[in-house]
Amino acid sequence: xxxxxxxxxxxxxxxxxxxxxxxxxxxxxxxxxxxxxxxxxxxxxxxxxxxxxxxxxxxxxxxxxxxxxxxxxxxxxxxxxxxxxxxxxxxxxxxxxxxxxxxxxxxxxxxxxxxxxxxxxxxxxxxxxxxxxxxxxxxxxxxxxxxxxxxxxxxxxxxxxxxxxxxxxxxxxxxxxxxxxxxxxxxxxxxxxxxxxxxxxxxxxxxxxxxxxxxxxxxxxxxxxxxxxxxxxxxxxxxxxxxxxxxxxxxxxxxxxxxxxxxxxxxxxxxxxxxxxxxxxxxxxxxxxxxxxxxxxxxxxxxxxxxxxxxxxxxxxxxxxxxxxxxxxxxxxxxxxxxxxxxxxxxxxxxxxxxxxxxxxxxxxxxxxxxxxxxxxxxxxxxxxxxxxxxxxxxxxxxxxxxxxxxxxxxxxxxxxxxxxxxxxxxxxxxxxxxxxxxxxxxxxxxxxxxxxxxxxxxxxxxxxxxxxxxxxxxxxxxxxxxxxxxxxxxxxxxxxxxxxxxxxxxxxxxxxxxxxxxxxxxxxxxxxxx
Length: 531
Fold this sequence. Notes:
The chain is built from 20 helices and twelve strands. The protein has about 525 residues and is mainly α. The radius of gyration is 23 Å and the shape is globular. About 50% of the residues are buried. It holds the Pfam family SusD-like_3.
């Protein structure tokens, strides 16, 4: 019931819209004289807005543009974003798409024609469209900087040839729109409407916007205003599809089998039919510390971490996020470090080149290895309460407000994961806490699409993205096991060198405006710096 509406909307609404904002002449517009009349019409049109505003697949691919992951197949669009070798002619996985904005504009222009629908209901409908449009502009401006600000559709493609508005104007628009709709949107909907924009979703997007642009005062105020949510008791269980509507989830992208399915094929190992399109890096794996709170470097210096058998006593989020050698996954032992195994890096094109695969969201395969992973109904999370807590902590760190509220926010996330509370003596100043919170965000949100924006807004992308991208050391899986059922490993052979990456700031902080868009609208020039 809750997801069937996506299929209806995709089939019937805006079927001839194209990606460019130039394609907004009213050839495909819905006639006010025949369509914009009833609640059914508004539901159908609003579904057209929701159906394209975000993609679960895109969220999971996005880490390949950061130091968290590698995209093995260049034609999927993330390899060149990850290694910095992109251009206007080859822009990678482009976000330069105004189709959803067009739909929202059309909805907002016509919704009040549906006079059969009570005005108070129409106000809520329009608030949802404004939220979706604000979300689209957040994605556009964080990826491209200056972009055209279009709030009314054009009558002809010629009229649509407009220049880019400064990022500051786009940011102001986003903040004004979200501020306006926060007190209009409901705090929740009935179960059949789960996935629609709520007050909490608008607050969370506004919070993320403030954090990205380093307005820490407003980020903190907004984060603290978000109420009614709580952490799910289990980090691993959070991503089980049976728990997808738990109280931590503020907003998610909805999927349903056969109609609007989520395929996990790109993220799974070759040995079970996956493509290993997006795989974790060694850098990400090394970011997960020991279960007692020490980094692996600290533990190794004290003789408690063995780099040849590295997966013992680690942060439990590592096992919940990454399939690593020796782990039992989908009913078999993952042996990617062994030369004769189907998951060995050069056995097949679909074998992980790093020796790791992602596990987050795919624990359903542990429960049922025969599950149709190419046709799943898992919702993919956009905002969850853990982000609110870690935003409170980060904002307070940057504002120099080192107090119990800061520690309590981080501790809530760590304790839920099975990690200890923060050592207040070890992490007592801004510099040490900044390092801690940045790593905490990395390991908590891996594969959730936040890492690239984080390293760019922290101005550390050049530091963490340049140089050799490495995978796991090769070796063998032993016959002995750990208490959690994983097999011990002996990883003594050289690491895989996947590629050499480049990240030039400020150039690679933004993506290039695609040449195809510039060809349609020369007023989009000049392109972003370096392109």
